[in-house]
Amino acid sequence: MACTLTFATGILSDRSQKRSPSIIIGLTIALIGLILLYTLPKDRLANVRYFGCVLFMSGAYCAFPGTLSWVCEYPRTSDRLRASYSATTAHAQRTIARRVASATSPSLSR
After folding, report:
1. pLDDT tens sequence for the chain (110 residues)
2. CB atoms within 10 A of CB 1
């Protein structure tokens, strides 16, 4: 689901030449998933919590290409800053993914 949503928003934002709607939609989807993860009890409703995790990761990955292309298109951004931003954003996504995985299943965080 995350891959399909990422490609779909990437294609649509490229065709419309507007990055902000895809970023806002992606972050909204991620926020809904995060709310589901933290408000539902851990011992019950495992399927709904898993769906919340899928929503969170889909939204987070969906917003990433639009944000990255938006920063890289900015004319005053130097190549060094672009590379630094790319690496920092990728590291932040991996860290968030690990924390969400540990919040949903303690056995995955080992």
Report:
1. 778 888 888 788 878 888 788 888 888 998 999 898 888 887 888 888 889 888 988 888 888 777 777 666 665 555 666 666 666 767 676 777 777 767 666 554 44
2. 12
Is-contact 77 71, C-beta < 8 A? yes
Total Cβ atoms within 10 A of residue 83? 11
Distance CA 37, CA 18 (A): 30
Cα–Cα dist 10/63, whole Å:
9
Which two tokens mark 1? Answer: 């689901």
Q: What angle do CA 11, 16, 18 make, to 5 degrees?
A: 100
